[in-house]
Design a protein that fits this description.
Hypothetical protein af1432, 735 residues, 7 domains, six-stranded mixed sheet, 15% strand
C-alpha cells in the first residue's frame, strides 16, 4: 500500500530522528529539478515531482535492510544519474526503476503517467533484474556480462543498472548474511565494474572496485589503506610540491593547464602488485598526477616538455590519444622520475577527454546542446564501438532515445532450466541451443519448451529465453535438421552424427550387395571365410569391407576374386548364363553367341532397349543401344558393318537380371545416398557398384551399376530418381 501525500511531506520537511534513516538523504523533488537544471535546459519540474511522489507512494512502507524506507534507494539512484548529467527521461526512469519489480505497478501504468519512452527504459531495467539471481558460478561471469549488455538495447538501461548497483554497494554492509555480501561483491568486481569501464564511466568503475575489494579482502584493503594513510600524511606536502613544480614547467612553455595529484586507490595498487608480482614496498609509482590542457596539440607539447626535463621510465609510455582504448578512453600516460626525485605516473588529456574518461556517455550532454554537428564529429568517434548513432541526431534526448548497444549485436543469450547462460548467434533455433549444451543433447533432441511453452526445434530464440530440451536416446538426427541450425558447433556436430548414420547405411548397402551375390551363386559364406577375405583385402574389419562395397571403392568382382583365392572349395564364376536344352549357352540376343560378343564401356543395354550390332572384321560384334553416343564413331571403322538385333524371348524371363549403368548429379549433403539406394531397391533393383565422381560447388556426380529385369523397370527407376528434390540431372551412363 502507498503512503499519504502528507507523510511524504513529513518525510522531507519533518524533524530528523537520530538513528532513523541512517543512509537516507532528505532531498526534495525541487532539489532534484534544481540540480538537473544546472546542466540542462529541458526540464519539466512538474513531471519530476510527479515521478518522485509516484515512487514514494508505490514503495510505501517497504524497508531496506539498512532500516531506510525503500524509496530512499530510487532517490539515491536518481542522484547518481544526476551526478552523471543524464537526461530527464533517465533520471525519472531511475526514480521509477523498482516500481514494477517490487510493487504491483505495471508498465502500462508507467506509460500512462510518464510516457512510452520512460516506460521502455523502466521495462528494460526490470527485465535485467531477472538475471541477477543465482550463484555467479552458475551464471558464468563473462556470459552474464554479455547478456546484460545485449539485453540493454537502450544504453540508458545499462547506466541505470550501474547506478542501482553502485548504491547497493554503498549500503552493502547492512546485509546480514556474509555469504550474500561476498557473492554480491564478487559479482560487482567481475561483472559490473568491467561493464562500467566498457561504457566509459570510470568514476563508477573505481567506486565499485574499491567497495567490492573492501568486502572481499578486508585485511588486504585495510593494510594498503593504512600504508597509504601513513604515506600520505608524510607526503601530502610532497604531492603539493610536485604539483607546483609540474605547473611551473608547463607555464614556462606557455601551456595553461590544471594539475591534480593523488594517491592511487587500494584496489588499483593491489591490481598492480598482482600483475607485476611485486610487494607494496617495491611499488614506487603510487602517486598519480593528471594534467588537463586545452587541446590535443598541447597534450603532446606537455608530454615533450616533461620528457625533456625528467628521466623517463622505459616501457611505461602509452599513447591512448592516437590509439584509444576499446571504450574510447583517450589520454597520454607516462612514468618518470619527477620533481624531488620521486617516481610518478602522469596522465595528460584535454577537458573533453577527461569528461569522457570520468562520465562516459554522460560527458556528451554539453556538446549535444551546443555548437553545430560538424564540431561534434571527433567527439562522437568514441561511441562507435558501443552505440549506434543515427545520422540525424540533433539533441541529447534524441541521441539517448536512439542509442542502441552494438556490442554483441550478433549474439543472444538464453538460459537453461538450471540457470546456465548459453551464448548463441542471433537467429539461432532451439536446436542450436541443444547442440550448444552438448552434442549428445542435440543428436537426441525431440522437442523444446521455450519459457514454459511447447515449441518445435526449429523455433528461433530471443534474447533471455529460458529453453528446456526434451531428448530420446532412440531418436537420431535427420538430414533436414541442417535447415534449422546456424551455429558452427551445431553444424559440425550434426554433420558428424549424420555422416556416422550415413556410414551405417552404406555398410548395410554393401552387406546387402555381398549377401545377394553369394545367395545368387548358391554359396554359403562362413564367418571364417569373411575374416580371411577381410585380411586378404587389408581391411581393419568386415565393416570396412562392407562400406567399401557400399560406396563403390571395391567392385563385387574383386570380392569374387578374393574369395576364390583364399577360401576352400570350388571356385565361383561371376556369370552363370542359362543353357539351352541342347546344352549350348543361350545368349539373350537372337542369333548371337556370347563368345563372339566384344565388351564395350559406353552403354549397357537391357531387354526392351532398341539395339544394334557393330561387326568388326576378324574381331567380333559390339552390342549398342541405337542411341549410343559413340555408335557413329564405331560404325565408321574400316570394314565395320552395322546390323539390327533383337532380344530373345528368354531374355525377359523373370529370373534373369542385367547390369546397366546410370549417372546422376545430386546435392552434396548427408542422407542423399541412402535416399537414392532406397528408390532403386524399392523398385526391385539392386545396386551392384557405386563410384563418386567430380564435385561441383554443392553438387556431386555419382556413377551406379544396377541390376534390373528390363527396360520397363529401369524407366520407372529413372523417373522416380528424376523427380526427387535432390536430383539435378540423370542419364543412362553411355559416353
Amino acid at each position: 500500500m502507498g503512503i499519504s501525500h502528507y507523510n511524504v511531506l513529513q518525510y522531507f520537511c519533518g524533524p530528523t530522528v537520530p538513528g532513523f534513516f541512517p543512509e537516507a538523504k532528505l532531498i526534495t523533488p525541487q532539489e532534484v529539478a534544481s540540480r538537473f537544471m544546472a546542466y540542462s535546459k529541458n526540464v519539466d519540474a512538474d513531471l519530476i515531482e510527479r515521478a518522485f511522489i509516484f515512487a514514494i507512494d508505490r514503495h510505501g512502507t517497504q524497508l531496506r535492510e539498512s532500516g531506510d524506507p525503500f524509496f530512499s534507494h530510487p532517490i539515491e539512484v536518481a542522484e547518481i544519474l544526476i551526478s552523471l548529467k543524464m537526461d530527464q527521461e533517465t533520471v525519472i526512469a531511475g526514480l521509477l526503476h523498482d516500481t514494477v519489480e517490487d510493487t504491483n505497478t505495471t508498465i502500462a501504468e508507467i506509460e500512462e503517467n510518464f510516457g512510452s519512452g520512460i516506460a521502455r527504459i523502466v521495462d528494460g531495467v526490470t527485465k535485467l533484474s531477472q538475471f541477477e539471481s543465482g550463484p555467479l558460478a552458475v551464471k558464468q561471469t563473462e556470459n552474464f556480462k554479455k547478456l546484460l549488455i545485449s539485453a540493454a538495447s537502450d544504453i540508458r538501461v545499462l547506466i541505470i543498472k550501474l547506478a542501482d548497483r553502485l548504491h547497493n554497494m554503498r549500503t552493502l554492509r547492512y546485509k546480514k548474511r556474509e555469504d550474500k555480501r561476498k557473492l554480491i561483491a564478487k559479482e560487482t568486481l567481475e561483472v559490473y565494474a568491467p561493464l562500467a569501464e566498457r561504457v566509459g564511466i570510470t568514476s563508477i568503475r573505481d567506486e565499485l572496485q574499491n567497495t567490492a575489494f573492501l568486502e572481499l579482502y578486508p585485511e588486504i584493503y585495510n593494510s594498503i589503506k593504512f600504508r597509504l594513510k601513513n604515506l600520505y600524511d608524510s607526503s601530502e606536502e610532497i604531492i603539493n610540491t610536485i604539483t607546483d613544480k609540474l605547473y611551473e614547467l608547463a607555464k614556462s612553455v606557455d601551456i595553461d593547464c590544471s594539475i591534480t595529484g593523488r594517491m592511487k586507490s587500494p584496489y588499483s595498487i593491489w591490481s598492480k602488485m598482482n600483475i607485476r608480482n611485486i610487494s607494496f614496498e617495491q611499488l614506487s609509482d603510487i602517486m598519480a598526477f593528471r594534467i588537463i590542457v586545452s587541446s590535443i596539440q598541447q597534450c603532446y607539447q606537455t608530454l615533450g616538455c616533461i620528457h625533456r626535463n625528467y628521466l623517463v621510465i622505459p616501457g611505461r609510455f602509452r599513447d591512448y590519444i592516437s590509439t584509444p582504448k576499446n571504450n574510447s578512453y583517450q589520454s597520454l600516460h607516462t612514468c618518470v622520475i619527477g620533481p624531488i626525485n620521486k617516481r610518478i605516473e602522469i596522465q595528460i588529456r584535454t577537458k573533453d577527454m577527461h569528461d569522457v574518461a570520468e562520465y562516459g556517455i554522460a560527458a556528451h550532454w554539453d556538446y549535444k546542446e551546443r555548437g553545430p554537428k560538424s564540431q561534434r564529429s571527433e567527439e562522437q568517434k568514441w561511441l562507435k564501438s558501443l552505440v549506434k548513432i543515427l545520422e540525424n541526431t540533433s539533441g541529447m534526448d534524441e541521441f539517448l532515445e536512439n542509442s542502441k548497444t552494438e556490442i554483441l549485436a550478433d549474439h543472444i543469450f538464453c538460459i537453461t532450466p538450471k540457470g546456465a547462460i548459453i551464448s548463441l548467434p542471433i537467429g539461432s533455433s532451439a536446436l542450436d541451443f541443444a547442440y550448444a549444451i552438448h552434442s549428445g543433447v542435440g543428436n537426441h533432441a525431440v522437442s523444446a519448451k521455450i519459457n514454459g511453452q511447447a515449441a518445435h526445434l526449429k523455433t528461433i530464440l530471443s534474447n533471455g529465453d529460458q529453453v528446456d530440451i526434451t531428448t530420446d536416446q532412440n531418436h537420431v538426427p535427420k538430414p533436414h535438421w541442417e535447415e534449422y541450425v546456424i551455429s558452427m558447433k551445431a553444424k559440425v556436430s550434426l554433420r558428424k552424427a549424420i555422416n556416422g548414420i550415413e556410414k551405417e547405411k552404406i555398410e548395410m548397402i554393401g552387406k546387402s550387395v555381398f549377401d545377394d551375390f553369394f545367395k545368387k551363386v548358391n554359396r554359403v559364406i562362413s564367418e571364417d571365410d569373411i575374416n580371411r577375405m577381410v585380411s586378404k583385402l587389408k581391411f581393419d574389419s568386415k565393416v570396412g569391407m562392407f562400406q567399401a562395397i557400399g560406396n563403390g571403392s571395391i567392385h563385387i568382382k574383386e570380392i569374387l576374386a578374393c574369395y576364390n583365392s583364399v577360401c576352400h572349395g570350388e571356385s565361383i564364376e561371376l556369370l552363370k548364363p542359362a543353357e539351352s536344352k541342347d546344352g549350348s549357352e543361350q545368349f539373350p540376343i537372337v542369333s548371337i553367341q556370347k563368345e563372339n560378343v566384344l565388351q564395350v564401356a559406353c552403354c549397357s543395354p537391357v531387354p526392351g532397349d532398341k539395339i544394334v550390332g557393330v561387326i568388326l572384321e576378324n574381331q567380333g560384334i559390339e552390342i549398342h543401344i541405337d542411341e549410343c553416343n559413340i555408335l557413329p564413331e564405331r560404325s565408321a571403322i574400316q570394314n565395320a558393318r552395322v546390323i539390327e538385333l533383337s532380344w530373345t524371348k528368354s531374355a525377359f524371363e523373370e529370373s534373369r537380371r542385367y547390369l546397366t549403368k546410370i549417372s546422376l548429379v545430386t546435392i552434396h549433403e548427408p542422407g542423399n545416398l541412402s535416399k537414392i539406394a532406397g528408390i532403386i531397391e524399392d523398385r526391385g533393383a539392386a545396386i551392384i557398384n557405386l563410384k563418386i565422381g567430380e564435385k561441383m560447388d554443392n553438387f556431386v556426380k555419382l556413377y551406379l551399376e544396377i541390376e534390373v529385369h528390363d527396360i520397363t523397370q529401369l524407366t520407372i527407376i529413372l523417373a522416380n530418381l528424376k523427380k526427387a528434390k535432390f536430383t539435378h540431372g540423370i542419364t543412362r551412363a553411355w559416353k
